[in-house]
Amino acid sequence: MSKIYEALENAQKESRELTTTKTELPQTTATAVLRSVAQMDFENEMIALYQNIETLLPDIERKVILFLSAKEGEGTSTIVREFARIAARKMGKQVFVLDSRRNSHQKCIYLHIIPEGSREGFETGNDAHREEMDLEMCPVDLPDGDTPLNFYSANIVDFWDSLRQKYDLVLIDSSSASSSPDGIEISRRVDGVVLVVEAEKTRWQVVENLKEKIEDSGGNILGMVFNKRRFYIPENIYQRL
């Protein structure tokens, strides 16, 4: 009996030592791992979205894609810019981001994205060498002067085609459907639409309603991105943060 008791005592002692060792792990380690995993998941999702678009539009070499959410605050701009970065950096694409939101007053930003491991260079204004840029971002009233684009004109197709001559991807950062009808109108005349949904907050009925409006207008839905997802942390890790 004494040997069994001794074995149990030793096992409990080892267990306590193991628990102590785990508890004394640096706090930054768990935080860094979680952030790294979250960033990796986000990038992988953008890569999967890119591949899905390529699969669904195999015959269109240079694409015009609209990113649209049902309501404000769902993070459409964040998704568009991250997708643009992935497409330029990892896929080597020439990308143009058009901010179609009515309240946008930013200047054009020309962003040169070079292979991973190198620095990114930012330039603004007319001094930037556009022919050397991989990524450009502009609000709607700047590409052709001071006149805002008319998304309700059939001639908007000519504008998209002019951008196709230079860029592999034209990404449109649209106002939400609840704040402006522009997104639904734009969806009719582009190659496809990506819906941006705030995870765990936007009701599925709202998303379904937006999907129906886009399809009724003749739009082509390519996929859906769930933004602002929560990463649930196990209790034993959470206690170390």
What does this structure look like?
The protein has seven helices and eight strands. It is an alpha/beta fold and 241 residues long. The chain has one domain (2-238): P-loop containing nucleotide triphosphate hydrolases (Rossmann fold, 3-Layer(aba) Sandwich), CATH 3.40.50. It has an eight-stranded mixed beta sheet, sandwiched between helices. Helix 2 crosses helix 3. The longest helix is centred in the first third of the chain and has 30 residues, at 27-56. The protein is globular, with a radius of gyration of 24 Å. The two termini are 43 Å apart.
Label this structure with key terms.
8 strands; alpha/beta; 241 residues; 18% strand; globular; Rossmann fold; disordered C terminus; 7 helices; 8-stranded mixed beta sheet
Rough outline: globular
- Annotated CATH homologous superfamily: P-loop containing nucleotide triphosphate hydrolases
Overall average residue pLDDT: 72
Number of strands: 8
CATH class: Alpha Beta
Q: Give the second-level CATH assignment, the architecture.
A: 3-Layer(aba) Sandwich
**Radius of gyration, taken over Cα atoms and rounded to an integer in Å:** 24 Å
Number of domains: 1
Task: Please write the string of helix (H) and strand (E) elements.
Answer: HHEHEEEEHEHEHEH
Q: Which structural class fits the helix and strand makeup?
A: alpha/beta
- Number of contiguous helices: 7
- Unreliable spans: 18-28, 30-37, 114-133, 141-146, 230-241
Question: How widely separated are the two ends?
Answer: 43 Å
Fraction in beta strands? 15-25%
CATH topology annotation? Rossmann fold
Helical amount: 40-55%
Instruction: Please state how the strands of the largest beta sheet are arranged side by side.
Output: 4-3-5-2-6-1-7-8
> Can you summarize the main beta sheet?
8 strands, mixed
